[in-house]
Design brief:
Blueprint (H helix, E strand, L loop, with lengths): L1 H10 L16 H15 L5 E2 L5 E2 L4 E5 L5 H9 L4 E5 L3 E2 L18 E7 L17 H8 L2 E7 L5 H10 L3 H4 L19 H7 L3 E5 L14 E3 L11 H11 L6 E6 L35 H31 L5 E7 L14 H4 L3 E4 L8 E8 L3 H9 L13 H4 L10 E5 L10 E5 L3 E6 L7 H7 L6 H8 L3 H9 L4 E5 L17 H17 L7 H12 L17 H4 L3
Parallel strand pairs: 3-4, 6-10, 6-11, 7-13, 8-9, 8-10
Antiparallel strand pairs: 1-5, 2-3, 7-12, 11-12, 14-15, 15-16, 16-17
Helix pairs in contact: 8-9
This protein binds calcium ion.
Calcium ion binds next to loops.
């Protein structure tokens, strides 16, 4: 109570143009008190506010944003022994039009948004037709909403994909072209994004699990819990527990991103009894896009499926928590994988196994149920979709499109071409690529053709034994596909209808020369339109030099030696 009284006093001192919120999941009573304070501040007619957040996430952190921070607030923070006070200067413009999410009477017709993100898995779910795996919860979710069959990430890497769907920009546009844990970062901390935009229309924003984008401060989530990657899968029931606490902590609409560790490596067979009946290698066949088969691949596939089943159960706990809040009827659920499986020809490649992901969206009574959409969609579409559904201002000049027409089942002209890209993951695997595909053909352009792709050895020899024998035994066209992946030519052209696993390169096939030329031209136009810095080949080479410079004499990269300056020269 002492804390509450002190804070109340501080609000009376020079904060007439500020709104203050405390989110502290250890003190829900205080969170409620301050939310109501914010309501009263927002009821005024002033369209522009200086906005101050005071938040504590249970990790002894306060974040304060505003043009000024009053001494009483700072003193308050010191009094309560918080470790860190971050003061940053923001002036946020609020529009209190009819579309604003928050009403002054505390009610809201704007939907809550629950964004569920899993790690390192493609469409290996029952509802996508995958044999052997058990995912009843996600299968049920798909039956209640729209399942996007042809959904793709912008780049098959963790930070790259996450920055992309949160900003609605391709990695080459926002700068997060490699892993945040390897110092790659967005060009600009002030890049507009989903979190900021939803906050401006009154959403409470929260994240459970990792963000994994640099700088984290670009995404000002107010509530944060379980900030680690948690690859050891500890205490996974806490995800649903924390989510419920956040969802119930206020009456305003919420945006909550819940990020699970499955199915990231290590593929752990069973954790805390999940899944109840793990599969073994004898129960399954390897994923079809491997094109090869041996006992190790079967065992890894089985454990990958075990991760997916565990994920499915945990998402079930989360959805049950949402039901218990009574808010499920007005909550949009989006479920996505951040990129494909960390397997052969998957994560860190531009092949379908890397870029194609599960994508399910539901909003009861608003969108179609049990609808299969076959349109080409990208996770860059997520930000414009959610902003439109929330009644928020759409960020200008985004390359993606709102999916609302597809979610409502309206027949509307849709995009003909979809684009993805690759740059780098950790320093081990720099190999820039650009891709374009239509409803049948896919073109991959390798920007360093004829050079060995270091990503090939990084994956194939790190996680698997004696793979070469298995590849040789498979014969063509699979053997050639692996050789091509290791040292590709400039162009790879695949007929995804005839050859969905991309084993046969048609780029040199005269029958397809017109298709090749059409896709080349389309890709070039897109690259120019999106201001692709790698159109300048000097940038391709300069970034390679920077990455190469962090390798030690023993041939391994050292993160501490990595000095990345590309945000400074990409657009010189
Ligand atoms: Ca990932």
């Amino acid at each position: 109570m002492k804390f509450t009284k002190s804070l109340r006093r501080s609000l009376k001192v020079g904060t007439d143009r500020r709104a203050v919120r405390l989110i502290n999941h250890n003190r829900p009573a205080q969170a409620r008190l301050l939310a109501s304070t914010r309501h009263s501040r927002r009821s005024g007619p002033t369209p522009t506010h200086h906005y101050v957040y005071l938040s504590s996430n249970g990790h002894q952190t306060i974040e304060i944003e505003g043009p000024t921070v009053s001494q009483p607030l700072l003193q308050l923070a010191r009094n309560f022994k918080y470790y860190r006070v971050i003061a940053s200067l923001f002036t946020l413009c609020f529009s209190f039009s009819a579309t604003a999410a928050q009403k002054t009477d505390g009610t809201s017709r704007s939907p809550n948004i629950l964004l569920i993100v899993s790690e390192d898995n493609g469409q290996e779910l029952g509802c996508y037709g995958e044999p052997y795996v058990q995912t009843p919860i996600l299968d049920q979710l798909a039956s209640e909403g729209v399942l996007f069959k042809n959904a793709y990430v912008a780049q098959a890497g963790c930070s790259q994909s996450r920055a992309s769907f949160l900003t609605g920009l391709y990695p080459h546009q926002n700068g997060q072209i490699g892993l945040a844990t390897w110092k790659f970062r967005m060009y600009d901390r002030d890049t507009p994004n989903l979190v900021r935009s939803l906050k401006t229309v009154g959403y409470r924003t929260g994240i459970i699990g990792k963000l994994h984008v640099n700088p984290e401060s670009a995404f000002p989530f107010v509530f944060k819990a379980i900030p680690s990657s948690n690859f050891s899968r500890k205490n996974q029931d806490n995800y649903a527990t924390e989510a419920k606490r956040f969802m119930m902590a206020g009456e305003e609409p919420f945006f909550l991103s819940v990020n699970y560790p499955d199915a990231h490596r290590t593929f752990i067979t069973q954790v805390d009894g999940l899944p109840e009946k793990p599969l073994t290698g004898d129960d399954v066949k390897p994923l079809a896009y491997f094109g090869i088969d041996n006992a190790e691949l079967r065992q890894q596939t089985a454990d990958y499926y075990n991760c997916m089943s565990r994920l499915d159960t945990l998402i079930g706990h989360l959805l049950k928590a949402l039901e218990e809040t009574g808010k499920a009827d007005n909550t949009i659920i989006a479920y996505i994988g951040d990129h494909g499986a960390d397997m052969l020809r998957g994560k860190r490649t531009s092949y379908e196994g890397g870029t194609r992901v599960p994508f399910i969206m539901t909003w009861p009574k608003h969108w179609k149920s049990d609808l299969l959409s076959t349109e080409l969609v990208s996770l860059i579409d997520l930000t414009p979709t959610l902003l439109e559904a929330a009644g928020a201002k759409i960020i200008p000049n985004l390359p993606g499109r709102s999916l609302l027409p597809l979610l409502k089942g309206e027949s509307k002209e849709w995009r003909r071409y979809l684009f993805t890209e690759f740059h780098i993951h950790s320093a081990h695997n720099y190999y820039p690529q650009r891709t374009v595909q239509d409803d049948q053909f896919k073109l991959i352009v390798n920007l360093m053709p004829g050079v060995t792709n270091p990503g090939y050895e990084f994956t194939n020899n790190r996680f698997f034994d004696n793979l070469n024998d298995t590849i040789l035994f498979a014969g063509d066209p699979v053997k050639s596909a692996y050789l091509r992946m290791e040292r590709p030519a400039r162009y790879e052209l695949y007929d995804l209808k005839e050859d969905p696993y991309e084993f046969t390169n048609l780029a040199a096939n005269a029958t397809h020369s017109k298709t090749l030329a059409r896709l080349q031209k389309t890709l070039q136009t897109w690259r120019e339109k999106t201001n692709d810095p790698l159109l300048n080949h000097e940038n391709v080479l300069r970034l390679k030099e920077e990455v190469d410079a962090c390798f030690k004499e023993d041939g391994t990269p050292d993160k501490t030696l990595l000095n990345l300056t590309y945000p400074e020269y990409f657009f010189e």
